[in-house]
Amino acid sequence: MRVLAALSGGVDSAVAAARAVDAGHEVVGVHMALSRNRAQMRTGSRGCCSIEDAGDARRAADVLGIPYYVWDLSERFEDTVIADFLSEYEAGRTPNPCVRCNEHIKFDALLDKALALGFDAVCTGHYARAGLDDDGLPLLRRSVDPAKDQSYVLAVMGPRRLARAMFPLGDVPSKEQVRAEAAARGLSVSAKPDSYDICFVADGDTQGFLRDRLGSRPGEIVTADGTVLGEHDGAYGFTVGQRKGLNLGRPAPDGRPRYVLSIEPVQNRVVVGSAADLTVGAVDGEDAVWFVPAPEDWIDCSLQVRAHGGAVPVRARTTAGGGLRIEVDDDRLRGVAPGQSAVLYRGDRVLGQATVSAAHPAAARTA
Amino acid sequence: MTPEAVAAMTAHLSAGNPSSLHTAGRAARRVVEESRERLAAAVGARPSEVIFTSGGTEADNLAVKGLFWARRTADQQRRRVVVSSVEHHAVLDPAEWLATHEGAELVFLDVDADGRVDPQALAAELAVHGERTALVSVMWANNEVGAVQPVTEITRVAAAHGVPVHSDAVQAVGQVPVDFAGAGLDALTLTGHKLGGPVGAGALLARRGLELTPVLHGGGQERGVRSGTLDVAGIAALAVAVEQAVTERAAVTARLSALRDSLVDGVRAAVPDAVLRGPTGPDRLPANAHFTFPGCEGDSLLFLLDSAGVECSTGSACQAGVPQPSHVLLAMGLDEPTARGALRFSLGRTSTEEDVAALLAALPGVVERARVAGMVGVR
Asked: B320 and A72: CB-CB below 8 Å?
């Protein structure tokens, strides 16, 4: 196959490309330029946005003996991922920009352009397994190394795009093995630090980034019954489940800590309450994508709502208009916010994905 | 590099330091001075007007910064730096740096739809601000769209106001007749690797009486304005290459311009809506063809042609390889989407009719495919 290997400049994508070459594919390396004003050197734990990273990607392509190009997707990135990040926070929701990048950039703009230019697949260094099940349906599974699994942020691409994706690192037992393999192949990025911060937030200061872009928007911090407890400088500075940084002078009547329960964007209010109020009993999702026939009746499965969170048992079914209803009898599901990505699994297999539109407290279930 | 330049370079790789007074140093000095004489004679300059540099970028920096500082030192009100809007970054960026750090006032000379500067615009500028102008820099020929600038008319206009003119002739030497004295220039940049010589060797021609403030300080080897031990082998190869490029210019460019014309005709036939950018006739470099392909991204075209074995360029290569819309095309009045569909074809001594035929055979399919990919990009 003709394979486009996305090269970020990091160790994972370099080894993934190397494995695609080993598998006998005709591989071309492409580095995506996602920022117009790129810093010369990499800083902190950001992954792919500096000129140094582009140079690392080019050196990896040199070592692998594959052609290398830079494609400028910065405008698309600004218009989709960053714009979505800001408007979601503005709307009181909690976005995951990595999910949106996979949705709009890697497995949309990049993949579509690659297919249009005659490639058969796009290869990345994500930790997940892509394949076909016994019925010939596209199958997305967690990686062999559960600690590195990225199926959560990939699920949004849906089955049609998955069929064109290649994840050669899905079956490696550990990241250490990837680094060792990189060193053995003479790839200079073998010891490069992992990236985990949001790539377009310069110093890892997400709140500062939001404040710069969205400005100060003072409002009230209230309890569920509307009692005003304090003030905030911008509701975007709060996420559901947050405990620190509320700066409330008065303790709660029961002396227990308070948590952010929800953001009310129209009134610009942050609602706080007890830990018990955070427990979620049901979740509504929108824009669902399915890797299996969409379940019109309840199915038993498990739900993951964060990139690095565990899955809890739930039942789920579709609703009218491409929606999804999830019900939970497990107190471990807490602090779910609209905007988060909800991914349903059976075992290690991804069944479907939707964006959370509403989370209902478990208290409502029992009441 | 031409075989002659390679021979000159390899013959002198073991040369001594030409600034040393011992036997080896004197032998090296002789090579440098003979090279200086040969280079000067080939481009209408005097040997004492040749300042050897590490290439075009250093020569441009010395011209722009050196002239600005020297002219401002002589008269504090001279702060205006006038450059064409289609200059190479080796001129634009020093000029912008002077504006940011040294209080220069940067003035851009607009170009017409073909990328050419209007000398009357310079006349109007200098009629108002002549006394406050430190220098004018207008390239001899543009590297992207091949526009040959009216350098002689520009120097005539500037001379009336006593303002020195520098011209970056990196693309011009060996392609069009270049006569430093005849053009009335005060300073001129040339470099080896664009004319069959080595990378890393170039020169600034500077009129004998021209005051330049040094950019590189040290031993003062070149006329007291450029320091650094001279690269004897590079200089020898540069001189041979310049001499050869000038001597063979008429014959080479006659062949290349005919080949270029067949390329242009062929592209127009293969892709009827492709638009040739830049002037036609004698105002265009003979080996340059530049097109915009509507609905295509230059980097898609580049990739697909590269896959088909045709090497070309979207504009000028840049640091991280990130394709930005060309400032030259934007200055010519193109909008960003149109400018993104640009592709430059440069022909060289080794280009053949077979190369052009291979390009023309691949082009229709490449453009069709790039259009589909382009539709993806704008969706």
From this structure: no
B318 counts as catalytic: yes
Dist CA A94 CA A240 (whole Å): 8
Hey, where are the domains in chain A?
Answer: 2-191, 216-276, 279-364
Assess if CATH 1.10.1040.10 describes domain A216-276: no
CB A3 within 8 A of CB A13: no
- Where is B288: in which H helix or E strand? strand B288-292
Do the interacting molecules here have an ipTM over 0.90? no
CA separation (Å) from B165 to A167, B61, B188, B224? 58, 14, 9, 21
Q: Give yes or no for a contact between A146 and A170, defined as CB atoms under 8 angstroms apart.
A: no
- Phi, psi for residue B60 in degrees, rounded to 5: -65, -40
DSSP H helix total and E strand total for chain A? 11, 17
* Residues of chain A positioned with their CB less than 8 A from the CB of B304: 117-118
Class of domain A279-364: mainly beta
Joined together, the tokens standing for residue A128 give: 């997940």
Which has the closest alpha carbon to A210: A350, A114, A92?
A92
Give yes or no for B322 touching A (CB within 8 A).
yes
Whether residue B337 lies within 8 A of chain A, CB to CB, comes out as no
Give the tens place of pLDDT for each residue, A197-213. 788 887 778 888 898 99
Altogether, the residues listed in chain A come to a count of 367
Question: Count of H helices and E strands in chain B?
Answer: 11, 10
Kindly give the residue spans of alpha helices, DSSP state H, lying in B216-309: 232-270, 298-307
- 3-state DSSP assignment of residue B221: coil
- CB-facing half-sphere around the CA of A199: CA atoms within 13 A: 25
Tens digit of each residue's pLDDT (9 = 90 or more) over A98-113: 899 999 999 999 999 9
- pTM for the model stands at 0.85
Q: Token pair 């005003």 is at which residue?
A: A228
Domain A2-191 grouped into CATH 3.40.30.10: no
From chain A, pick out residues whose CB is under 8 angstroms from the CB of B323. Answer: 70, 72
Q: What is the distance of C-alpha A239 from the center of its chain?
A: 16
Q: How much helix, strand and coil, in percent to the nearest 5, is found in chain A?
A: 30, 30, 40
* Confidence label for B375 from pLDDT (cuts 50, 70 and 90): low
Share of chain B above pLDDT 90, in %: 87
- What are the C-alpha distances in Å from A158 to residues A177, A267, A299, A300? 29, 36, 19, 20
Rounded to the nearest 5°, which phi and psi values hold at A333?
A: -85, 105
Q: What is the DSSP letter of A334?
A: B
Interface of B with A in 120-179 (CB under 8 A): none
Q: Degrees (nearest 5) of the Cα angle B327, B329, B335?
A: 100
Q: What pLDDT score was predicted for residue B317?
A: 52
Q: Suggest the residue from A4, A35, A58, A71 to mutate for an interface test with chain B (most B CBs closer than 10 A).
A: A71
**Contacting residues for B116 by C-beta, under 8 A, at least 6 apart:** B147, B148, B149, B150, B279, B283
Cβ within 8 Å, pair B376-A116: yes
B373 touches chain A (CB under 8 A): yes
Cβ distance A110 to A6 under 8 Å?
yes
Q: Which residues of A touch B (CB under 8 A)?
A: 28, 31, 33, 38, 51, 54-55, 58, 67, 69-72, 74, 76, 109, 112-113, 116-118
Beta bridge partner(s), residue A140: A130
- Chain A hits for B321, CB-CB cut-off 8 Å, are 31, 54, 58, 69-70
pLDDT in tens, A72-87: 888 889 999 999 999 9
Amino acid sitting at position B350: T
d(CA A143, CA A131): 12
Could you give the 3-state DSSP secondary structure of residue A283? strand
CA distances from A196 to A100, A250, A307 (A): 16, 36, 11
